[in-house]
Amino acid sequence: MQPRFGPTIVLDVPNLTGCSDPIRMEYFRRTGIVHETLRLTGGFEPIIRASEPILNSHDAVLLKATEHDIAPATLYRWLALYKQHGPTGLIPRSGRGHRGRSKVDSQIKVFIREQYLSPQRLMINTVYRQAVAFARSRSLPIPSHRQVERYLNALPIAVVVYSRSGLEAWQERAEKDLETIEETGWK
Question: How many domains is the chain built from?
Answer without folding.
Answer: 2
